[in-house]
Amino acid sequence: xxxxxxxxxxxxHAHLNGSIRDSTLLExxxxxxxxxxxxxxxxxxxxxxxxxxxxxxxxxxDLIHIITTDHMVVTRITKEVIEDFAKENVVYLELRTxxxxxxxxxxxxxSYMEAVMEGLRAVSAVDVAFPAHNVDAGSxxxxxxxxxxxxxxxxxxxxVRLLLSIDRRESTAAAMETVKLALEMKDSGVVGIDxxxxxxxxxxxxxxxxxxxxxxxxxxxxLHCGEVPNQKEIQAMLDFMPQRIGHACCFEEDDxxxxxxxxxxxxxxxxxxxxxxxxxxxxxxxxxxxxNAKHPLILCTDDAGVFSTSLSREYSLAAAAFGxxxxxxxxxxxxAIAFIFEDDxxxxxxxxxxxxxxxxxx
Length: 362
Ligand code: 5GP
What we know:
This protein is of the alpha/beta class. It has helices at about 1-5, 20-35, 40-50, 55-70, 70-85, 110-120, 170-185, 205-215, 230-240, 255-260, 270-275, 285-290, 310-320, 325-335, 345-355, and strands spanning about 10-15, 90-95, 125-135, 140-145, 155-165, 190-195, 220-225, 245, 265-270, 295-300. It is built from 15 helices and ten strands. The protein starts with a helix and ends in a 5-residue tail after the last helix.
């Protein structure tokens, strides 16, 4: 596990509200329990439980959202999640979150995202490389620390980019609102749009206009695809040719064929898939087939908090379950650079980071 922690890694599938530390969630839940908003003991049991079906996962998210949908809390969890990833040597993070609206506390999708941005600026343990609008040049520049930390060479640096998620419960209009917000925030590090939320709710066709618009406007797209059997939807999503998909658990023969010929990279979330029983065990996980076929794939956490995991642990699990050595795992981590939603400048910088860490293989 040690070398899985110390090697540089790229995280491309992490949901903000799924990645919260248990200790933070419990602390926040206790406060709401004292105010009588929730029953703390029920919540505590739910948070600390290890096994959860996909249905239970979404019930837990509803509970988490009651606890966290507050501007200051959103700022705090964003800061902590970034610091946690940086601590285990994630050097590039695409963090996704669903912008939320809550009239009762004056929260709009925009103010929610501003609270996320505040969290980025609040990170103090590491330098956060993030696009900052260059007023003089009138254009965004990358690789600028947004927090006020000193960017000394001895300090760790993590690139952070944001993906805005559309929840499958949302309407076409709400999905469009999220895409428009992403466009307004493009200079602030929002690079793409994700479709997530309970896979048995909603239909792809509802969100298609928003994703078409996002693509026309130059945003990158990743879709949760095939978490439950739904061949019609899987085929339609693959036909849309997103830049990446997440999961791909319930694919049929035709779906694998289409996926492989399209070469769409897959974000693989081992622990999440097994805990939610989307895949019965690691031995039969589609990682093996895709890896052997040299299909582009990226190991990711999905929800490090909800599934009690970390990216290092996912690498360690894959190495043990699939008999892969240090060199192969290092290469797998490095390969992810090709699939980030960023330009060649950032890719080159990440490549140098991996190259200078390659001596750990000796
Ligand atoms: P948030 O967007 O609130 O920051 O993160 C939690 C949300 O991400 C959940 O409410 C859900 O919409 C989405 N999410 C997290 N994990 C999963 C997953 O494994 N599958 C799907 N389809 N959605 C997920």
